[in-house]
Amino acid sequence: MNSDRRSRTVLTVLVLLLALVGLGRAAASPDALTVSSALYRGTADAFPATGAAVPTWKQSLRAVPRVRLTGDESWLVMELRNPSQNREWVFSPQGSLIERVSARLYRQGRPPQIIETGYRAEHAYMLHYGVDITLAPGERAWLVARFSSPFYASQPEFVVSSRADYRRKVSRENFLILAALGALITLSVYNLFVYAGTRNRSFLYYAAYMLTYCAGWAFTFHIPADVFGLRDLRLHYLWFFLLPVLNTLFYLHFLQLDTRLPRLARLSRGVIWLSLALLPSSFFLLPYAHVLATGAISLWLVLALVAGVISWRQGFEPARFFVLGLLALFLPAAIILPGNVGLTPDVPFNSELFTLLGGTLDGLLLAFALADLIRLLSRQNQASIAQLRQALTLARTDTLTGLLNRYAFEQAFNASGNQLLIVMDLDGLKGINDKQGHLKGDELLRAFARHLRTLEGEGITTYRLGGDEYAVLAPPSEEKRLVARVREIESEMQAEYPTSGVSFGVAHTGHAPKISAFEEADQRMYRQKMSKKGVARPSLLT
């Protein structure tokens, strides 16, 4: 898959995720209550006795536009009218973690319905605070809720929707939540295996980052609370302080930031120490932990994005997926994080799910980045192997003739079993060098090498040992043919260089010491050379 196709795939996935988040709004049923609501803060200790007492009771409270994000106790008063024929509804606190919600639904002629929900309560709907209520067609009711929490990640919302719509919403959102968390765990485990094989710390930091991201959002969506009964708010923001630490360690190593951008690397390490310094606030300053975590995460995202963009511009190709992943995370963060500290209005959709899906897409793109890194490293390794092979070839090759050199001969000769060894000496080289010059002598050496190369075949290799000395290694069964062919080569050489000749000696390595076989062949070659000195033909032998 090329980079353009990957980019189109990423954009398609992002659009699909956004469509899934908003799918339920377009498909909602026409059933709706008429709701008017207001928030109050005051010292009331008890709920009103009846619905008729609600208008007078709420006058003792002070209306407020919103809750304090650093935590407080507030009252919600909702007046409900049911103009539809639907009787089944759900009261749902949402948009933020809320530790406790106690409510009373006042309907005429019936005792108040007691509602208990929130983080500390058991939930009728998995991962959601919704509680079933019943309102008859045309009925009017009051719903009064007292809720409290040591912090709010954003402004909480209180809605009443039809039970059928709410069930569809819960099913859809739970599917997306569990699918996203499952994808994060899968990516983490897979990259831990990759790290075990490669020992590249980028994969280790990535896996730790993904597992931490998964843990943080699992706590946000109350999975430990609903599944394991683990309800400890001090653990919730611990993970979000660790996210900048682990992701910064990841991109420091992945982008090779100490080498590429040392100043930015030092600033990034500052974010690590800042996040670790703020981490204890999860236990000792819980009302402010989400604000402090928002600040640390915002600083991390900006530095990481800058580092990724610069590395990409410098030509580090895997950085493009790192940048795209950060953008997938940065988009929901830019919308949601300002709302976490009250700087912007809350978004009209499930911001927590939107952020989780953005983080999952970030994890997928970081996996692409690591795959691209593997491709880059593989390409670099292949280039290094090719260079090494070239260097080894040059180290084993005679540069003048192109034949294997003495080093290659000694490796093959010492490693071989029973082989035929032919040692050769090119006669007449010194005379040509003296009378016609060394360039002409080099031509003679290359011409002889070309003839010798015609001997090469399966199991047959030729070597230049140095000067005018050559050798052939071959299977013993090839002796008769090769000896005849060497004599033919001598005739062919003499047709081109009349003063040349070839002296050679043959031996079998067998099981005797290799040096003995070489000396035997060398002595036979020498005796043949000496015998040629009595031949009545022009010769430059010395």
Topology at a glance:
Elements: H1 3-26, E1 34-41, H2 54-57, E2 62-64, E3 72-81, E4 88-94, E5 100-107, E6 113-117, E7 131-134, E8 140-149, E9 157-162, H3 163-198, H4 201-220, H5 223-228, H6 238-254, H7 257-260, H8 262-278, H9 281-284, H10 286-313, H11 319-340, H12 351-395, H13 406-415, E10 420-427, H14 429-436, H15 438-453, E11 461-466, E12 469-474, H16 479-496, E13 501-508, H17 514-532
Antiparallel strand pairs: 1-2, 1-3, 3-8, 4-7, 4-9, 5-6, 5-8, 10-12, 10-13, 11-12
Helix pairs in contact: 1-12, 3-4, 3-12, 4-6, 4-12, 6-8, 6-10, 8-10, 10-11, 11-12, 14-15
Task: Please tell me about this protein's structure.
There is one protein chain. It contains 17 helices and 13 strands. The protein starts with a helix and ends in a 10-residue tail after the last helix. The radius of gyration is 42 Å and the shape is rod-shaped. With 542 residues, the chain is of the alpha+beta class. A hairpin with a 2-residue loop joins strand 11 and strand 12 (469-474). The protein has a 6-stranded antiparallel beta sheet with strand order 2-1-3-8-5-6, with no helix packed on it. Strands 11-12-10-13 form a 4-stranded antiparallel beta sheet, with helices on both faces. Strands 7-4-9 form a 3-stranded antiparallel beta sheet.
